[in-house]
């Protein structure tokens, strides 16, 4: 799997795993897609495994996002 299809599949895998699609998640997905586009521009022959090596597995990306959301939420309620 090379080029755009690798990037598209990686992004699709992230979107599939992200459980909620609120405005916040849509913004996050947009930022991820931009980062993936930039990586693809700099590395036009990148494979799916190259994306995993650079950004982590799709699961890793989603888990990191959710953990960050929990940290932010906990900070809001901690006085």
Brief overview, please?
This protein is mainly α and 79 residues long.
Task: Give a written overview of the molecule.
The protein is an all-alpha fold. It has four helices and no strands. Helix 1 (3-17) runs antiparallel to helix 2, helix 1 packs across helix 3 and helix 1 packs across helix 4 (58-77). The radius of gyration is 14 Å and the shape is elongated. The mean pLDDT is 88.
Q: What layout of secondary structure does this protein have?
A:
Layout: H1 3-17, H2 23-42, H3 48-55, H4 58-77
Structural features:
79 residues; elongated; mainly alpha
- The average pLDDT is 88
Main beta sheet strand tally, sense and closure: none
Give the topology string: H per helix, E per strand: HHHH
The tally of strands reads: 0
Helix content: over 70%
Strand content: under 5%
* Protein structure class: mainly alpha
Terminal Cα span: 49 Å
What is Rg? Answer: 14 Å
Q: Uncertain regions: pLDDT < 50 for 5+ in a row?
A: none
Shape: elongated
What count of helical segments does DSSP give?
A: 4
């Amino acid at each position: 799997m090379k080029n755009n299809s690798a990037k598209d599949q990686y992004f699709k895998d992230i979107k599939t795993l992200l459980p909620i699609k609120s405005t916040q998640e849509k913004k996050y997905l947009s930022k991820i897609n931009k980062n993936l586009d930039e990586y693809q521009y700099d590395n036009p022959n990148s494979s799916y495994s190259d994306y995993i090596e650079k950004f982590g597995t799709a699961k890793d990306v989603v888990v990191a996002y959710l953990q960050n959301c929990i940290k932010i939420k906990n900070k809001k309620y901690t006085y």
